[in-house]
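Predict structure. Chain length: 305.
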Amino acid sequence: MHQGHNIPWDIITSNFKFVREDKRFTPAFSGLASTDRPNSEQELAHFKRKFAKAIAIFSETERAKYPQQIPPPQSGLLFSNELRDKYPAYLDERNQRLEHWIKRAQSTHTDDNGNPYPPSYYTGEGDLADVVKVLLFENQMETLLMLAQHPDVPIHCLNYLSWGHHFGFSRIKESAVHAYMYFNCAEATNSLENGQYALPRSYSRLLQEISWGMDYPAQQIPHLNFLKACGVLDENGHYKAVKRNLDSHTRNWGEEVLVHKDYGRLKEYMKTLFEQMYRYDVLMRECGLDPKWEEEVGYSLPQKY
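Prediction complete.
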């Protein structure tokens, strides 16, 4: 398991087991089920605290690489032309310039005293949230720290944007934790190497979350890269299983969706996801926000059947 020296995966091993087609449920349940340990609640609470602590340790180390204070410019390029050309779906000449971010945060409305409202971003700035996601993935942390400190760029407003479903850069945290927990929990319960992790419906839901199209989907970048490298997706981002007319909602799509066979690649993917998490932590704390790791990990733990 990834970060086994910092994260107590043995707690997952003790508290969950893989069951296949448990017919006490309709439809029959396959997946991780509770072992009904008497101290399960306390043990899982400890697991969540240790997980959050592991991220905090790496976050502190990462933050120490950069100046505490970064003078805020009023204009200039936020990223290179090379990076812009690498991600044409998300980066362009407009959002490359700092003054564009400043202008879009300015309010055209005033309060009762005629004073303009403080700079802010709303759901119309989902494209800027996608830029943040790309910069996190590409480790452009000094730029992000500058934006977090900039008085005219309320980047914290881009963390959670929603119009029925959310698409702010909090999606980085959410998708990274869900995938990271799924595969590490599978390994902790001996359901990774034998491919049983692909049987539950929860696996098809995970694949949907980390790869399907949605509004402002830049958080999918590391997941799509991995799934394409594994051969689960073709170069156009389509599932090979679906192209073969297999039902995308069945519990077992077959060999086309197994990702564990190149264990080295899976380990590298876990490393990438962990990097996404502690970089997100750095940015959130620079913004004065709580990343709420224990809460997110709790959502990602197997349900206790």
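Summary: The longest strand covers residues 16-22.
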